[in-house]
Design goal:
This protein has 143 residues and is α+β, with helices and mostly antiparallel strands. The protein is 43% helix and 22% strand. It has a five-stranded mixed beta sheet, with no helix packed on it. The termini are far apart. Residues 87-142 form the NfeD-like C-terminal domain.
């Protein structure tokens, strides 16, 4: 029993997909796309060298495309600044006065908290929005 070249390419693509499912490595899926392209090249009747070149080219192109797409996407906010993780983010607090060390004492949720201004912002009295929690301190932005 002899296997067609396209069957071998499809089997390798299937192995790459299974490996991707087991490991969660997204780039193996991109390599499976390249192996599928090699199978299509075999179906088209291209020689073995051309099949390898098509598979390598498509696999490399998809891996690079996935890498640069993922790199260009803005990252998720840190859990400290993510409203879905920390419900304090986005709440408004009133700051009456800032201390010389750059902190302020605020009443929030029935307790006294220490607020710090986000770096690069001017600490002025008034309403501020909680940007993130840093330990037990509220990092705030002017509201």
């Amino acid at each position: 029993m002899t296997l067609e070249a396209s069957t071998l390419w499809w089997l390798m693509a299937g192995v790459a997909v299974v490996a991707e499912l087991l490991t969660g490595t997204f780039y193996l899926l991109m390599l499976a796309v390249g192996l599928g392209a090699g199978a299509l090249a075999a179906h088209a009747g291209l020689g073995s060298v051309a099949q390898v070149l098509v598979a390598a080219g498509v696999g490399s192109a998809t891996v690079l495309a996935a890498y640069f797409t993922r790199r260009a996407r803005p990252g998720d906010p840190s859990p400290r600044a993510d409203r879905s993780v920390n419900l304090d983010v986005g709440e408004v607090v009133q700051i009456d006065a800032w201390l010389p060390d750059g902190t302020a004492s605020v009443r929030y949720r029935g307790a006294s908290w220490t607020a710090i201004a986000r770096p690069g912002t001017q600490p002025l009295p008034g309403p501020h929005r909680v940007a993130e929690l840093v330990g037990n301190r509220l990092m705030v932005d002017p509201a």
